[in-house]
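Let us practice reading a record.
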Amino acid sequence: MSTGMFSTPRPVPSRLAPAVAGGSVIALALPVFAVAGWPLSAWALAAVVWAAAQMFALVLAQLSGGADSLAAAGMRGIGTTSRGLLVGIPLVAVTVADERVGIAAAAVYAIAFTIELAVGLVSYFGGEAKA
C-alpha cells in the first residue's frame, strides 16, 4: 500500500451515498425484527437515533463553511466526537432500562454506521486527488 494514497489531499465527497447506505440498513432491519419477533421498539430507537445523527451531521456540514479551512476541519472533528455522545447516551440509558431493547438497537445502529463508514471511505479514496 502506497503512503501517497493517504497523504494526497482529496475533496470532501458527498454525504448522500453513505447516508443512504446506512439508512438502507435501518430500513432492511425492520422486516428482520418483525419476522424474528425482536422488539420493534429497539428498531424504532435505532431509526430515531440514526435520523438524529444524520440531522446533526447535516447541520454541522452547513455550519462548517469552507470545506478546506482549518476551522472547518476542527468543526468536523468536534462534531464527530459529539455525534458519538449524541448516539451513545440514549442507547446506554435504554440498555440500562431494558437490556434486550438497548442491545438490539445498538447492534442495528452499529451495523448501519459501519456500512455508512465503509461507503464514505470508498467514496473518499475512490475520488480524484486534488492537483
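A brief commentary: Residues 13-125 form one domain.
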